[in-house]
Design a protein that fits this description.
Shape: globular
Distance between the termini: 49 Å
Radius of gyration: 16 Å
Largest sheet: 7 strands, antiparallel
Helix content: under 10%
Number of strands: 14
Oligomer: single chain
């Protein structure tokens, strides 16, 4: 039992504004999010077990037993080798779940859903009420420059959408994949408008998979 606990600890440590046109300006530096506060508490580092595997992504809680991430972050055939660590900061975390199932969301190029059976206590983030195309946003993820803390990019936003893919001006990089593209909401505070998917090597700007409570963004 003691050996199992030590192994799990090693895995977790190592693997581990209103609507309208958005005019991009210089983005401020990333800031560290208070991991214990909502909505940041609904995000986690997604790690894969393995001594040699130090690559990680981000995942966003959308129900007590489900989270969304980028499809390229998970191998659906090896779902049980992935671990979601919610509220992860500096080696500590609020909740941990071993992924039990993973699937690519139909109609999306790079969106996956991961799930587990035991509900978490963390409060999920509601989806945007409709598909977003332009407007101010915040990007949150476990970027490789600060892999042990959830960091944010403010002062950026969505610049256009084609089908399920929405472009954004939030500088991003490795580790941000699966991260949350959030929009402010007067009722809920925040809503999830997209899951970060890709970054440009030259500009560090990115693309995300648009998500909506109203259904697929075609």
């Amino acid at each position: 039992m003691r050996r199992h606990v030590l192994l799990l600890s090693l895995v977790l440590a190592l693997c581990t504004a209103g609507p309208g046109p958005f005019r991009a300006g210089p983005a401020p530096a990333r800031e560290v999010a208070p991991a214990a506060e909502w909505p940041w508490s609904a995000m986690g580092r997604l790690n894969q077990a393995g001594y040699r595997n130090r690559i990680h992504c981000t995942a966003v809680l959308v129900s007590p037993t489900r989270a969304l991430t980028a499809a390229h972050c998970v191998d659906t055939a090896l779902a049980g080798s992935f671990h979601l660590v919610l509220g992860y900061f500096g080696g500590g975390f609020a909740e941990h779940r071993t992924v039990e199932a993973a699937r690519q969301v139909p109609g999306h190029e790079d969106l996956a859903e991961i799930s587990w059976s035991e509900p978490v206590r963390a409060r999920p983030i509601p989806l945007a009420q409709h598909c977003q195309s332009v407007g101010a946003a915040v990007l949150a993820g476990y970027n490789h420059t600060a892999p042990h803390a959830l960091t944010l990019r403010r002062g950026c936003g969505m610049t256009g959408r084609r089908g399920t893919r929405v472009s954004h001006s939030c500088p991003s990089g490795p580790g941000d994949s699966g991260g949350a593209l959030l929009v402010a909401d007067p009722v809920t505070g925040w809503r999830l408008a997209g899951i970060h998917s890709a970054s440009s090597r030259s500009t560090r700007l990115g693309a995300a998979e648009a998500v909506s409570a109203g259904g697929r963004c075609d």
